[in-house]
Amino acid sequence: MSISWLLRTLPAMSGELARFDTDRTPAEPRELFLRWFGEAVGAGVREPHLMSLATVDDQGLPDVRVLLLRDVDERGWHFATDRRSAKGRQLTARPDAALVFYWREQGRQVRVRGKAFDLGLAASAADFLGRSPSSRMASLSSAQSDVMSDKSDITLARQEAERLLAGNPDFVPESHAVYALAPVSVEFWQGDPASRRHPRLRYRRSAESWVKELLWP
Ligand SMILES: Cc1cc2nc3c(=O)[nH]c(=O)nc-3n(C[C@H](O)[C@H](O)[C@H](O)COP(=O)(O)O)c2cc1C
After folding, report:
1. pTM higher than the cut 0.90
2. What is the rounded distance in angstroms from the CA atom of residue 35 to the CA atom of residue 136?
3. Gap from CA of 119 to ligand 1 centroid (Å)
4. Which atom of ligand 1 is nearest to the CA of 86?
């Protein structure tokens, strides 16, 4: 079986999907995101807090990876990572970034674009110390995105991290960072395979307010 044939046999947007009335939406996108997020949890969407984060490297080449959403507030969409990682270095050089959520069980996609900024030491410490011991140990012992010269390096790094945490349980590595992506546009997309109209609503930041626009599917 060829891959192109296999791909054509696979369904997309199957099952009972959610609906989206674009005439009944709040003035700002965070409120709609929180509403949709609650609906995703209620609908049993698996891992609705996973999102893809796109950044741009110093050659202008886009990069993308999956992360966990850590919070959403007036500053933006938060994620935690190692500031020395590829994405951390990319964001330091160029904060332009984008996020996408896909909630398959509902046929929903949310896209967020803007600039990401570091929320500072207090936010990093609160995030790090709120983690389980195993998560702290894993993060402490990782030189995220560096080339690993030998597989055994990770075992040695774990032992060192274990020793460090045993002696100082409140230790927070400088490399742990929490970023907020401050949105300039947020788009809500609802799959509607029967009509193929796929309602799309984009909130665009304009001075102190948000402009809402419908987009062609
Ligand atoms: C389900 C899932 C959740 C993840 N959550 C995070 C996360 O919250 N933070 C993080 O730094 N990496 C997370 N990762 C790993 C990233 O996708 C990525 O491999 C790592 O951050 C290195 O990316 P970079 O080399 O582009 O910096 C997650 C991966 C998966 C598949």
Report:
1. yes
2. 31
3. 18
4. 27
